[in-house]
Design brief:
Elements (H helix, E strand, L loop, with lengths): L4 H4 L7 H30 L6 H23 L6 H21 L11 H11 L2 H19 L11 H84 L2 H25 L11 E4 H13 L8 E4 L7 E4 L1 H18 L8 E8 L2 E8 L6 H4 L19 H10 L4 E7 L3 E9 L4
Parallel strand pairs: 2-4
Antiparallel strand pairs: 1-3, 4-5, 5-7, 6-7
Helix pairs in contact: 2-3, 2-4, 2-7, 3-4, 4-5, 4-6, 5-6, 5-7, 7-8, 9-10, 10-12
Length: 428
C-alpha cells in the first residue's frame, strides 16, 4: 500500500506567503483610509494649499491595487515571497509619492517608512528585506532634496503643527507594527499547529501502511486455522443440544468476528478511506453497534441515551467504519472501568446547532492532564504495554474528520473520560 502525502495534507493549511499577503492587504485598507482622512484634515489646518487632487489620486490608485490583490486572494491565489515583496515595495513607492506632494522630508509621516521596513524584516527573506530597506533610505534621501513645501518649518505655529504630526505618526506606526506582528504571528502559530498535525498524519499513514503489510501476512496465516475452527464449531453445533450447542454457535460467531477484524486491518485507517459514505439515521445504527459490541461480553451493558430531537436525525458517514469507531470507543471505556466496583459506561446522541454529538463517557481511571492533548494521535496509548495499539481513537477521529466533523476528549484523572464525536447533520 502506497500512501501519498497529498492524501493526508489538509486543504486548510495555508502557505506562509499567503498568510503574510492577506495581512498586508488588510493593513493596506486601514492605511488608505487613514491617508485619506489625514489628507482631508491637513487640507483644513495647513494655511498653504495642498494638491488634493494628486494626493487623493495616489490613494485611489493604491486602493484599486489593493482591491485587485484582495479579489485574487479570495479566488484562491497562491502568492510567493516575491509577491509579498513587490506589494510592500508598492506601499513604499506610494508613501514616497504622498510625501513628495505634501512637504517631502518635512512631513512627519515620513516615519511610516519604518512600518514597511519592520514588516519586511518580519515576513520577507533577507534579500527582499534589504532591498526594501535600501529603497526606503533612497526615497527618504531624495525627499530631502525637494524644495520646501507647505509643511516647511517657517513659524512657531508650523513647528507646533509639525510636533503634533510627529506624535500622530508615531502612534500610527506603533499601532500598525504591533497589529501586524501580533496578528501575523497568531496566524503563523495556527499554521504551525496544522502543519504539525499534517506531519503526524503523514507519519501515521506510513505506519498504517506497514501495519497493512503485516496484517496481510497475518491474515494469510490465520485464515486456514480460523476456517478449520469454524467448520468444527459448525459440526459440533449440529451434534450438540442445549447450552453446549449455544456455546458452539458462539464460537462460530467469534470466529466470524475475528475474520471481520482482520478484514478491517487490511484496509487503510480501518477501511474509512475505502468505504463510500452514505446518509443514514444515526440512532438505530448506534443502538445496533452497541448491541453487537455487547454480545458475549461480561458486565453491565452501556447506558444508551438518545435525545428525542435526535431520534430521526441523519448523518453522512461510512457506516461500517462508524460502527467500528463506536466499538473502539466502547472498548476503551470498558477497559478504563474494569477495576471499578460500580462500572458505568454511557453513550449519548444529541443535536446541537445543526450538528450531531455522540458522547461516550465512563467513570474509569481517566487520563493525566499532561497526556490529554496527545489523545487521538496515532499509535499513542495510555494502556499497559501489549494491551493497545493506539489506533482506536485515531481511527474514530479520522472517520468523523473526513466528513467535516471533529473529536474532542475531556478527562479528569480518577474520575473518568468523555469522548465526543461531532458530525454535521445531513440536511441541517
Amino acid at each position: 500500500m502506497v500512501v501519498r502525502l497529498e492524501e493526508v495534507m489538509p486543504p486548510t493549511v495555508e502557505s506562509a506567503s499567503r498568510i503574510n499577503l492577506r495581512w498586508i492587504v488588510r493593513l493596506r485598507w486601514g492605511a488608505v483610509a487613514g491617508q485619506v482622512i489625514t489628507i482631508l484634515f491637513a487640507a483644513r489646518i495647513v494655511h498653504q494649499s495642498l494638491p488634493l487632487g494628486a494626493l487623493l489620486s495616489v490613494c485611489a490608485a493604491l486602493a484599486a491595487f489593493n482591491l485587485i490583490m484582495h479579489v485574487w486572494l479570495l479566488r484562491g491565489g497562491n502568492p510567493s515571497e516575491r509577491a509579498c515583496g513587490l506589494n510592500l515595495m508598492t506601499d513604499v513607492l506610494a508613501l514616497t509619492a504622498l510625501l513628495a506632494l505634501s512637504g517631502g522630508a518635512y512631513n512627519p509621516f515620513a516615519a511610516l517608512y519604518l512600518v514597511h521596513i519592520t514588516i519586511a524584516a518580519v515576513v520577507l527573506p533577507a534579500r527582499w528585506s534589504v532591498a526594501l530597506t535600501l529603497t526606503s533610505i533612497v526615497a527618504y534621501t531624495l525627499l530631502q532634496l525637494l524644495p520646501e513645501g507647505p509643511l516647511a518649518l517657517g513659524s512657531e505655529e508650523q513647528l507646533l503643527l509639525h510636533l503634533r504630526g510627529r506624535w500622530v505618526a508615531f502612534l500610527v506606526a506603533a499601532a500598525f507594527i504591533a497589529t501586524f506582528t501580533l496578528r501575523m504571528s497568531q496566524s503563523l502559530r495556527r499554521r504551525e499547529v496544522e502543519l504539525e498535525r499534517t506531519r503526524s498524519d503523514a507519519e501515521a499513514a506510513e505506519r498504517l501502511a506497514a501495519l497493512g503489510t503485516l496484517a496481510a501476512g497475518t491474515a494469510h496465516e490465520l485464515n486456514t486455522p480460523l476456517g478449520t475452527i469454524a467448520i468444527l464449531a459448525g459440526e459440533l453445533a449440529a451434534q450438540l443440544e442445549g447450552d453446549r450447542r449455544a456455546e458452539a454457535e458462539e464460537i462460530r460467531r467469534q470466529v466470524d468476528r475475528c475474520k471481520e477484524i482482520i478484514t478491517g486491518m487490511l484496509a487503510p485507517r480501518g477501511g474509512a478511506d475505502l468505504e463510500e459514505p452514505k446518509e443514514f439515521e444515526v440512532a438505530p445504527v448506534l443502538e445496533a453497534a452497541v448491541r453487537r459490541w455487547q454480545q458475549g461480553r461480561p458486565g453491565p451493558a452501556p447506558r444508551v441515551e438518545i435525545q428525542p430531537q435526535a431520534a430521526r436525525a441523519r448523518a453522512r458517514l461510512p457506516v461500517h467504519a462508524f460502527e467500528r469507531a463506536i466499538a473502539n470507543l466502547l472498548d476503551n471505556a470498558a477497559e478504563a472501568t474494569e477495576h471499578r466496583s460500580a462500572r458505568e459506561v454511557r453513550i449519548a446522541l444529541e443535536r446541537h446547532r445543526g450538528d450531531l454529538r455522540i458522547e461516550v463517557a465512563d467513570n474509569g481511571v481517566g487520563v493525566p492532564e499532561p497526556l490529554l492533548r496527545r489523545i487521538g494521535e496515532p499509535f499513542f496509548t495510555t494502556k499497559e504495554p501489549g494491551r493497545g495499539t493506539g489506533l482506536g481513537l485515531y481511527l474514530a477521529r479520522h472517520v468523523v474528520e473526513r466528513q467535516g466533523g471533529e473529536m474532542t476528549v475531556t478527562s479528569a484523572e480518577g474520575r473518568g473520560t468523555q469522548v465526543t464525536l461531532t458530525v454535521p447533520e445531513a440536511g441541517a
